[in-house]
Amino acid sequence: xxxxxxxxxxxxxxxxxxxxxxxxxxxxxxxxxxxxxxxxxxxxxxxxxxxxxxxxxxxxxxxxxxxxxxxxxxxxxxxxxxxxxxxxxxxxxxxxxxxxxxxxxxxxxxxxxxxxxxxxxxxxxxxxxxxxxxxxxxxxxxxxxxxxxxxxxxxxxxxxxxxxxxxxxxxxxxxxxxxxxxxxxxxxxxxxxxxxxxxxxxxxxxxxxxxxxxxxxxxxxxxxxxxxxxxxxxxxxxxxxxxxxxxxxxxxxxxxxxxxxxxxxxxxxxxxxxxxxxxxxxxxxxxxxxxxxxxxxxxxxxxxxxxxxxxxxx
Amino acid sequence: xxxxxxxxxxxxxxxxxxxxxxxxxxxxxxxxxxxxxxxxxxxxxxxxxxxxxxxxxxxxxxxxxxxxxxxxxxxxxxxxxxxxxxxxxxxxxxxxxxxxxxxxxxxxxxxxxxxxxxxxxxxxxxxxxxxxxxxxxxxxxxxxxxxxxxxxxxxxxxxxxxxxxxxxxxxxxxxxxxxxxxxxxxxxxxxxxxxxxxxxxxxxxxxxxxxxxxxxxxxxxxxxxxxxxxxxxxxxxxxxxxxxxxxxxxxxxxxxxxxxxxxxxxxxxxxxxxxxxxxxxxxxxxxxxxxxxxxxxxxxxxxxxxxxxxxxxxxxxxxxxxxxxxxxxxxxxxx
Lengths: 314, 335
Hints:
The complex is a heterodimer of chains A (about 325) and B (about 325). Chain A is α/β, with parallel strands linked by helices and about 325 residues long. Helices cover about 50% and strands about 20% of the residues of chain A. In chain A, strands 8, 9, 10, 11, 12 and 13 form a 6-stranded mixed β-sheet that branches. In chain A, helix 2 (about 65-75) crosses helix 7 (about 150-165) and helix 8 (about 170-190) packs parallel to helix 15 (about 295-310). The termini of chain A are far apart. Chain B has one domain (about 1-335): Orthogonal Bundle (ABC transporter involved in vitamin B12 uptake, BtuC), CATH 1.10.3470. Helix content of chain B is about 75%, strand content about 0%. Chain B has helices at about 10-30, 40-50, 55-90, 100-115, 120-140, 150-175, 180-185, 195-210, 215-220, 225-230, 235-255, 260-275, 280-300, 310-335. In chain B, helix 3 (about 55-90) runs parallel beside helix 8 (about 195-210), helix 5 (about 120-140) packs across helix 11 and helix 13 packs across helix 14 (about 310-335). The chains are: A alpha/beta (about 325), B mainly alpha (about 325). Chain A: This is Ferrichrome ABC transporter substrate-binding protein. Chain A: Keywords: Coiled coil, Lipoprotein, Palmitate, Signal, Transport. Chain A: Belongs to the bacterial solute-binding protein 8 family.
């Protein structure tokens, strides 16, 4: 009995090692072929080191929405998007129906689907996809950039890095100039008095999460001349009604969740009724996708237009 | 009387007096601390004032209900824990360790995603259902008979972790639906009188029934044979105690999420202070549970001051080492 078992084990080992060797050969061949095809490569510095990317990548898979926005700003479209299986969210972001393959959720992208698309480049989020960087690298050259919980400026940097990776630096500079101009125009249009404080927040059933001066929307509003009511290094801060009434911002911008909301419970309280923003009718409900999920150069402009429209209405 | 066998270790009147004082002091400290600085005297004034100034509103509509809720939940979870330790005769039992909290939490999260417009009153019943399912699953392991305390606790922890991971999974798949952290560790930040109103009837019912069956429970702890010999209907006692556990723990989870470890620690402290008689353990567990959660909630504010952190983090911080200590002690006794 024992001998047979040993024999079987040996065979299994042999099969496994052959498979491993074959697999090794396979990937080696692939990469050497790639090297021959694309002698010209671009090296891009990103959050997890340097990656060389074949010049002018065509097939790009993105794992965060802000990267869709960035490619959009450069006149490109990804072939695969981690869209949380919500096509309409992407349609709203791009402003048009585009042809792409969903690669699952941003939290847990499907590596098999990504690899079946045979991309030239993968753009992943530094916070969400740090752990799977090695797996992604095996599928295609991958760059990890800041998106989730990142500031507006960090997103602009990510935009520049993406432009370099796809060989469109010139277009990117043009687009950014245009962007600066748009912001300057919006800032002029904004009729708000100076020194008004604003607080954007995401409201859920059990939490009121303020977006501080270090959040994407918070920092962008500061660029428009609206001071954030919470100056903090952390992007988000959990808050209760007492803290909110202490901070008492002039303008409240709420990106509400679907379903029950904590603020509905607060509405009966006189502290809520006495908030400056509530008294002066400056509580605005905005689209959560646009304000807190898309995070990019193009959507920042849309946020700016939204802000001007809402605040100038009266 | 059974009390003769189980001698208290300290004078119960002294313990009761000190505990009540501690609770009152704790509640005052709880109410006195907050993001807006209000002087101590103003806090006391505001408690009894009837104007509608900002200070009075903050104290009466935000801080006071939160302190009351902390006390009610602490008491409920502690009594639920004491009952569970009695009916399973396992010193490691508690609503968290045996999957009751996680079951309630999962049920609520699922319900919130399937029916987003659900009102808070209905969530309580859904919590009961989940709590019962979680508890029964673990209890089935217990009725095997030969499982040791630590093994049973491990089975319970496994069910707890399994249910928690399902909760996490459900929330990850519906990212915008609700807060992950809240439904995994529990928090009483931002709660007001509406939540106190939801919990209060279940708190009163649960404690009333628990106290009124405390004598039977004391006998049950002596052993099944002994209890049957003394004329107790063991199965029914277990069943009713189980219903009370579901009521107290389920309602607590429905208003504040699955705050852990209160039900585990407190009955042990109560036993140390007043002896093994459940006629004393139950009321003292309620009192000490209230004290623990009130002080823990004060501490929770200093983790990420001036912003809020869930109180469940603090109870886990205190409770986890205690759990390991009990597991180790239990093993020594068994061997």
